[in-house]
Write a structure and sequence with these properties.
Layout: H1 3-29, H2 32-45, E1 53-62, E2 66-76, E3 79-90, E4 101-103, E5 105-115, E6 117-118, E7 121-122, E8 144-158, E9 173-185, E10 190-201, E11 206-217, E12 221-231, E13 235-243, E14 251-260, H3 263-266, E15 281-289, E16 293-301, E17 305-314, E18 321-331, H4 339-342, E19 349-360, E20 369-381, E21 384-396, E22 399-408, E23 411-420, E24 431-432
């Protein structure tokens, strides 16, 4: 027998052995014994990736290409954090040979999450060990890559929902949560690619129609790449980076844009905004630490007018402050006066010019307040019109102090006094010609 024929016989025997072994392996993976073994194996392996106890009621599928799980729950410190009707996981076993975890697709159907705030933070953020990069950890940690996590008809209960000093009314329940998210994690970066998220909060009648974008977390920074939010009446897009998230005052390099930002819509989560009845469009760029951010802003709104500002903003703490130069075109101050301070009659202004401001923004414990200096080509206040206006003064809620001069009604006049905005601007302004 020739050498070539002997070689072909050897190859044929090896192929037959491989095929037979693979066939036997596939058959074994479909037995009840193997599925019970695989269920226990997954629970044990989950200890490397889940900060808690994972339990699985039923398992189907095979070891090589994917599994289907039913009655899945995760408990942390004796409390159930996640209770899921069924989960499907698709993967290729060969990808695990590199030492990492690569999952093609995870399907999560009708999960219920119970989220609470503990002494170490929100429990849901600590459930998965796909932790953010830490320079103190070894660099040989397993990578995690999940092509897509698809979640349908989820319910989220938030057990700790204080408004507190944050001023945010966190809903106690979220319903109809649908999501499509991809995750990659290694020692350098955690990347979350949000393809789609939608939800509704029935108690506050608030809903998110779509949330998308990419969020990257490195050792000491969070980067937002085209993160877009769309609700029933608001759209918002944010791109940029927040530095110093692990220590020291945070520093921003962020751009936010909106073609419609409805205050009454966002007020369902931030109640203080309910007193402002505007729907501005804007472009805002913020750079620097929170207590002295350089902010460029362009705001347009039908009732408010157009305001372009080159500002320094102190956003550190509950009382925010703005100072800098502002260009105004048909600016109306009335929409910025909260309902609680406006009284029965709102004064209207129409100002075109420039101003220097140092203003404390309205919040839960303070009204609009601060100083201003205005040079305006045209001003209309409560029906009184003037041109070539030079004025300075102070704002304290509904009371505006004025010291200025202007050309009006065939002459030039100076004025020094106060205007009560809640009184329709009818308080006296002593004037001299």
């Amino acid at each position: 027998m020739s050498l070539a024929r002997r070689s072909l016989q050897v190859v044929a025997f090896i192929c037959t052995l491989v095929v037979g072994t693979a066939s036997m392996a596939v058959i074994v993976t479909q037995t009840t014994w193997f599925k019970e073994w695989l269920r226990g194996f997954i629970v044990r392996q989950a200890e490397d990736y889940v900060n808690g106890r994972l339990s699985i009621g039923r398992l189907d599928g095979n070891l090589f290409f994917g599994v289907d799980l039913e009655d899945v729950d995760v408990t942390m410190n004796g409390k159930t954090v996640a209770d899921i009707k069924d989960v499907g996981v698709d993967y290729n076993m060969l990808t695990f040979l590199g030492g990492g975890v690569v999952l093609d697709h995870i399907r999560i159907n009708q999960p219920v999450f119970r989220i609470e705030k503990t002494d170490t933070g929100w429990n849901i953020t600590q459930m998965i060990k796909a932790r953010t990069p830490d320079p103190n950890e070894p660099k040989n940690r397993r990578t995690i890559e999940i092509g897509e996590i698809g979640m349908s008809d989820a319910t989220v209960y938030l057990e700790d929902t204080p408004v507190g000093t944050s001023g945010v009314a966190v809903p106690s329940r979220l319903e109809q949560v649908d999501a499509s998210v991809g995750i990659t994690s290694d020692e350098h970066e955690l990347t979350v690619a949000i393809n789609h998220v939608s939800l509704r909060a029935p108690e506050s009648d608030f809903q998110v129609n779509d949330l998308s974008g990419v969020i990257r977390r490195t050792t000491n920074a969070v980067t937002l790449d085209n993160v877009s939010l769309r609700t029933a009446e608001t759209s918002l897009r944010v791109t940029g980076t927040v530095h110093n998230v692990e220590g020291g005052p945070p520093s921003l390099d962020v751009r936010a844009t909106s073609d419609k930002f409805t205050m009454s819509d966002i007020a369902k989560l931030v109640p203080v905004l309910a007193q402002y009845h505007v729907q501005p469009a804007f472009e805002i760029t913020a750079k620097g630490p929170l207590d002295r951010m350089a902010v460029d802003v362009n705001v347009r709104e039908a009732n408010l007018g157009n305001v372009i500002g080159d500002l320094i903003v102190d956003a550190n703490g509950s009382n925010k402050r703005v100072s800098g130069n502002v260009l105004m075109n048909h600016f109306n101050v009335a929409p910025l006066i909260p309902d609680s301070a406006a009284g029965s009659t709102r004064i209207k202004t129409d100002v075109t010019g420039r101003a220097q401001v140092d203003i404390g923004l309205p919040s839960a414990d303070q009204m609009l307040n601060g100083t201003y200096a205005v040079q305006a080509s045209r001003v209309n206040v409560a029906g009184y019109e003037a041109r070539d206006v030079n004025a300075r003064g102070r704002i304290d809620g509904r009371v505006v102090k004025v010291n200025g001069s202007a050309a009006a009604y065939g002459g030039r006049a100076t004025a020094n006094g106060t205007v009560d905005i809640a009184d329709g601007g009818r308080s006296g302004l002593p004037a001299r010609r």
